[in-house]
Amino acid sequence: MMKTQLETSFIIILIILLFNSSVGTNQDYKESLLLKLLPDGKVLAHFDHVITWNHISPLDMTAFSNVRHYGIFPRPVSEMISLYNVEELYLSLTRGKWKDRLWGYPPIDSPPGAELWAWFLPQASDVDEDWRGLLHALSGLLCSSFDAIDSTTTFIPKTSFKPTGAFIGNISSSRLRYTALPREPVCTENLTPWSKLLPCGQKVGLGSLYYALKLYDTNYHSISLKIVPSCQDDSCSSVGTAVTLSLSVVFKLPSGKTWSLSSLFGRHIEKKCPLSSSSFIYFDKYLHKDINLYPEPHFIENKQFLSSNVELSVYELNNLKSDIKVSLKNKNYSQVMPHPPSPLSIQRYLTGSGHGRGGIVTIISNNDDESLKVSFLDMVPWFFRILYHTLTCELTINNNNNNKINCEETNNTILFKEFSPAKDRVLPYKMEYIFFIPPHSSISLYVEFLRGFLKWNEYPPDASLGFFINSAVLTSNVYKCANCTVSTMENRSSFLLRIHSDPLLVSLPIPDFSMPYNVICFVSTVIAIGFGSLFNLTTRELLPVNEEEEEKKGVLVRIINKLKQLFLRKD
Amino acid sequence: MYHVLAVSVLLRLFLLSQEASGWLSDRIELSTPLNSWTRLKEGVALKEAGLSSYQSDLFHETPLVLFLFQYLLPLGDIINGLFFIVADILIAYCLAQLTRLHHQNELKNQEQRTKSGGIGKGVEPILITRNESLPSIVASVYLINPFSILSCSAHSTVCFNNLSIVFGLWTSLKGNWFLCGMGMSLAVQFSLYPVMLLLPLSLTAYYSGRTSGVLKFLLYTVLWMIGILCVSLLITGGSWDFINGVYGVILLVPDFTPNVGLFWYFFMEMFDHFQVFFLCVFQINAFIHAIPLTIRFNQDPMFLVYTLLSLISLFKSYPTVADFIIPVSLLPLWTHVFRYMRFTPVTIGCVLVSSIAGPITWYLWIHTGSANANFFFALTLTYCISQIFLLLDVCHSYLTHQYDMTNGLPRTSNKLGTGHVLLKLQ
């Protein structure tokens, strides 16, 4: 009996293995790690894990439902996208702030907290229902609080987002949903389920460097998940699926002149993930020229990135026998050339004091030598009552403060403008612009808001902390980008630059949470005084006091009456 | 009279020149979500931008006001400020006119009663005396009132509500039911609660023209209401959004922006499952008093108007101090009952304390963060209590006065001769 059971299970395993190999021809897994020394000496490590599946794409609604064997493709992901008719999905969970001015642009720009957007298939009958389902699935998949998102935090941007992969049907924003959770705390509980989607997990390959203790003791940390229907050739005749799992982390300044991979991550790579077809470690010395690497890189690769050429030292994980050691000849970072100014930057801050009327100032600067067309998306929760009539837009030309003009007065600064007002407890505010910004100019948007008053149970437990206003999103297509981080996975001629402003933390006036009963009692008392007295007035008649009747009453009553007479005014 | 008018206009002009509307219009004592100048500007701006003003939950004005200010706002701050000043002067004028007519009627009634022997002996000290300056006193009380000056400078649109109410009252005393219907229907469409005033005005109509008078008045009112509704629909382009945007907000109180009333903190702190129940209780409470009061004061519709206006100011969902000014301004009509008032120091004290400490506690809560909401809430309660005291005191004095007028003075009903009269069950 036992023996037959063993035999059957053995056969089953064999069949699965056979199938796996046949599926495997359609599937591919690549991983890479880019290490980059930042101008201030910090180290950026950016991991990319790309799982592709040929011929099976989310565009075909039935593709995933017919699949029985997933191979290396993460099954929860495929089930999720086929169940909720997702065409394209992007998600990021970030902790810390990326310093654009100091570090250049990140490989993937993400706002602090969580950000998520998804395109749904044109066939999806009820996008909102799918979106709700997707949010629940994702919060389960990544241990995040996406399930707290409702219509008040969901946005439908018109101009800022476009599908990045293959797509079918018209690009209509009604199929797009965007949300962000600026106060989402990101930690190991998100990293662990996320890394389980990797074919080799945290066991071998680059994933073995994911040691939470070190990863979260850093200045910046971001994990992301991207699912796109990807074209397999230039003509896009066949469409597959690409799932990209990326992790970016900025390590604090390593102490000493020499540091190594294992000293950064607290782990070392045992061996290559056997399921991966390619596994490289790239090293971008960038502005630090006097750096020694040990062992010597396996080869030097020249990456064409936009108009610039980036020289990368490459290690192949297969042939890497020892830990990579980095030694700097000179640890004086002040001599390191700073990044060239970012072509596009966004700054945002609050004005006003106390809990009265407040204002939001957003400054979008184009520091480039060429004009830029940028999409601007601003999202504000309904309880910050944005006053549209206070919205002003000023264009400062040549960064000369004396040269300010109203955007509306110039011909072609505002190419598109849309403001959608909020509905209490239903819809948030949304503001979208497309600006055409002349070179070395900036646009400053100013809008005032009134603070709303919420019901006691609409405040979060830490109400005094305040409420976040989502990061504004700025999107532009750039053709040269001096301070972008090179992408190791793809060559690009144009680059969709998306940057986020800081989220704003705004405090709201709060009621006293401890006294609902008292308030109910006090107000009811006042109402009762009014009601009772009016009831008396209207139901009773003025009659003279009959003193003889009074005397018939008991001794106590008489004493009380005498006392009353003492205190009552005699007139 | 003219120097009071001059002083009050100068004060308003001074505040206008200081661009007071900017910092006063966000004062929650002066303007509520329903009538704030800031929100009105927002609604107009949205309309200009091609959006529906009612799409935003910021805007709760009626379409008529929206339409009016679509043309007034571009004329600049000064014209708008002057417009509000003119509206205030019109209110004062209507008040003066209605006082004049009411005073004449009162004297006439008293004369008739004296002739027919309907009054007691020795009531000469409490008789109504002819007072030629009474209209100007009433107008002055309104014009020089700090509440009305501030409310006018804050550009709170509550003044249109007040104007239509006093206009309706004045024309009702004149017997012009067509214009009275207009005033009343305007008042109802501005803030809904003045619908209670249809009761006293129907009584006035009944006394002047019996049933046909009442029918005439109600018919005109209904016709005007339909007319206003049609105009509103024309303005909004056939969209019914404003019903929910204006009257839905008045009745359902979704906006907890603090004000001087009883609703905001109560519903901010209310448990979800009692919300609907208490909302019903509070709104019924606001309206229900009209019936017993009408039965009680059916002989004197103007006094009934006073009680109802006081109740509206007290129990409406989004009151401002400007709602309180109209009943206070009407008070001099009953100077002959003032001698019976018992809580005057308490009432005046309460009003003073709440109007001085209210803004202070608001500042401490909102701007410096050193006090919490309860302090401000306590002072709004004080303000409400003072209104209740005033209303009850005036009602009680009025009834005592009536009692004395009928039974004569001095009171001989008891041995002590103190002459206490008490409210007793009939």
UniProtKB/TrEMBL annotation, chain A:
Q: What is this protein called?
A: GPI transamidase component PIG-T
According to the record, the signal peptide region is: 1-24
Which GO CC annotations does the UniProt entry carry?
GPI-anchor transamidase complex
Species per Swiss-Prot/TrEMBL record: Amphimedon queenslandica (Sponge)
Q: Which UniProt keywords apply?
A: Membrane, Signal, Transmembrane, Transmembrane helix
Indicate yes or no for the key word Transmembrane. yes
Q: Which domain of life is it from?
A: Eukaryota
Q: Where are the transmembrane segments?
A: 515-537
Keyword Transmembrane helix set for record: yes
Its GO biological process terms? attachment of GPI anchor to protein
- Which Pfam families does its entry note? Gpi16
TrEMBL record, chain B:
Question: Which pathway does it operate in?
Answer: Glycolipid biosynthesis; glycosylphosphatidylinositol-anchor biosynthesis
- InterPro entries attached to this UniProt entry: PIG-U (IPR009600)
A UniProt-annotated Pfam family: PIG-U
One cellular component (GO) term of this entry: GPI-anchor transamidase complex
Keyword Membrane tagged: yes
Q: Which residues form the signal peptide?
A: 1-22
**Which keywords are on file for this protein?**
Endoplasmic reticulum, GPI-anchor biosynthesis, Membrane, Signal, Transmembrane, Transmembrane helix
What are the TM regions of this chain, as residue ranges?
Answer: 78-98, 177-197, 217-235, 247-267, 273-291, 303-326, 346-366, 373-392
Q: Name one GO biological process term.
A: GPI anchor biosynthetic process
Q: What is its main location?
A: endoplasmic reticulum
Query: How does this protein sit in the membrane?
Result: Multi-pass membrane protein
Which compartments is it annotated to reside in?
A: Endoplasmic reticulum membrane
Question: What family does this belong to?
Answer: Belongs to the PIGU family.
Protein name, as recorded: Phosphatidylinositol glycan anchor biosynthesis class U protein
